[in-house]
Amino acid sequence: MGVIRDLCHKYTTLTEDEISTIEALAPFLQIIADLTDADIFIDCPCRNADSIVVAEAKPSGFPSSYQKSVVGMLAKAENEPAVARTSRLGVSTKQMKAVTQENRRTIQSVEPIRNGDHIIGVLIQERHIDEKFFTNQRLQSAQQSYEAISGGFNRVMPENNWLTECIDEALLIVDEGGIITFRNTLAKELYQKLGYIDDVLGQPYDNVFLVNADPACEGSHMEVEVGRYVLDVKRIPLGAPNMAFVLVIRDLTWRREQEKALILKSVAVKEMHHRVKNNLQTIASLLRLQTRRSDSPETRKVLEESMNRIIAIASTHELLAQSGMDEVMLSDVVRNIKSNALRSCAGPHLKVAVTMEGGDFTVDSDVGTSVALVVNELLQNAMKYAFEPDRRGLIRIVMTRGDLYSRIQVIDNGRGFNVRDATKSRLGLSIVQTLVEDKLFGSLDIESGPRGTQVTFDFRNQLTNPDDVT
What we know:
CATH superfamily of the largest domain: Histidine kinase-like ATPase, C-terminal domain
Low-confidence stretches: 131-159, 466-470
Oligomer: single chain
Number of helices: 14
């Protein structure tokens, strides 16, 4: 028995005939994957609300979103809402976000596979959500790969015309006489948007071609602007009876508009963070001036602590202004906090080394700002109170990335303290606890003894919903 049949028997209630239908579709997945430069899957509904991946195909000339095979893995309804919707309602679902079994964000388009009125599975077309990255790495496939595509396409047409409606690209087939003999629905709608009144089906290709194709470049991608539309055009020779070549057209208009909007947003974000940083530095300067004029040691101490907190926030906004994005590298945030703390506590008595481990991942601006304040408080406390004057010491800052929550540890080999009393009496630790629990939605743990102190806090990687981000 094959893999598809084994998985269907184990996880689904499909009949033998329905399983045979799924098996008959599986050979066409590679053809569709190569035509669309997308990962293609067949999922079948399980006995519970989830689905099981029974077949897959990765594009031959384009990077896949997956490192490993996912056949036999479950597709959870909460991670793949497009699959759940199509399986439940029996309707197509286009361009919906999903999270893969490898915890990557993708965009799915899903078509139902029917046996009469019964939904027996779904056909999924999936692309990485950051397809621009892959587009920049696009590989021009060798001629034999296109010959394989054309041979497979000949088998798809015309018996399985419905498969072409599952593809998120416009398809045109041109015969040896230069006449368009087939177009799918997306192609018809695309040419209507471009201003063509009549259906392109049956027309000479010379009347509707979008780009002059160089025979030496057949099979490559060409980007062309038609009015306000930006289209990616791929011409694949078929060399079959009544099939000279197939044209695959992808509408990139929305994506290019989003890229332009992102550039404008980046400029605005840079300016916003730059102004915030300048304002915070002005406030810190005023506090520094007030500190110098104060005769009270207690007042100077409070003002210096407030000034250090403001500088910690300002340093994060400085990094955000440089990146132009609403996210920042965590190691850069902590490195700035470390430098500021060493400067503020500098003196002949300070013989403490501060090291950093990990942190090579990005966090959004809200996370970065709150983490900066927390690490600043912990580092300042350790440098001021953990060590006897003139004693050498070590403070380690360890940053560990997790899937949903990440963790930071501030560890010193100082003299320790009474955790219960300090938590009640020290404003800094009270600020830390409030930030971790209320702003970072994490937890705080403090362990201290004669051999040193270890403070551990975790935080949610994203405070904003990624689905709300354009």
